[in-house]
Design goal:
This protein is of the alpha+beta class. Helices cover about 55% and strands about 15% of the residues.
């Protein structure tokens, strides 16, 4: 039986990880408010290799309200490569170099672009919900297999399946809340 309680804990952890990944993915979606997450995972071709444009790797990223992202690059030789990576990212940022700092301006969103971004966020949300359902189905299969193997009784099987379903519903609710908040940010900022 301890193995089955581990199953529930593992599923809870997997659900939390999916929710965290979803939040991270949402933060990289553009809204009218800039976020370091929009550019911190961009790949910069530098010294005949690619590196992520992250605070740890190439410089520091700072948001200047209302719609500017400043990237202060530590190595002055990399500034053109970083500027090119930001321009080529397809985020619609206008980039200008000012010494060791790259200033990326986020233009205001058009109504058409807002609809596209909302649709993109919805697709991402649905993808994470599918992954959650797959994880739930896997957990339920393990529960049924344990019952067939005689490791747990029928009552315990239903109790565990209820626990898995409750975790699934809670995680789905958190995903929906995060999506709703992001859509509000896209549409009203």
């Amino acid at each position: 039986m301890p193995q089955m309680s581990n199953l529930l804990e593992n599923f809870k952890q997997e659900s939390a990880n999916l929710q965290e990944l979803f939040q991270k993915e949402l933060s990289s979606i553009r809204s009218n408010r800039p976020s370091p997450a929009m550019i911190e995972n961009l790949k910069v071709f530098y010294f005949e290799g690619t590196q992520p444009l992250s605070v740890n790797q190439m410089g520091s990223i700072k948001v200047i309200p209302p719609r500017e992202i400043d990237i202060t690059v530590w190595d002055p030789n990399s500034i053109q490569a970083v500027a090119k990576a930001v321009e080529d990212a397809g985020l619609g940022l206008s980039v200008r170099v000012d010494g060791n700092t790259i200033r990326a301006d986020l233009p205001a969103l058009t109504a058409e672009r807002r609809k596209e971004i909302v649709k993109q966020a919805g697709k991402i949300s649905e993808g994470f919900k599918i992954r959650l359902r797959q994880a739930r189905d896997d957990a339920n299969k393990k529960i049924v297999e344990s019952e067939k193997a005689g490791e747990i009784g029928e009552d315990e099987k239903f109790k565990l399946k209820d626990g898995v379903q409750k975790i699934t519903e809670e995680t789905n609710q958190k995903i929906e809340e995060a999506l709703s908040k992001k859509m509000e940010e896209i549409n009203f900022s």
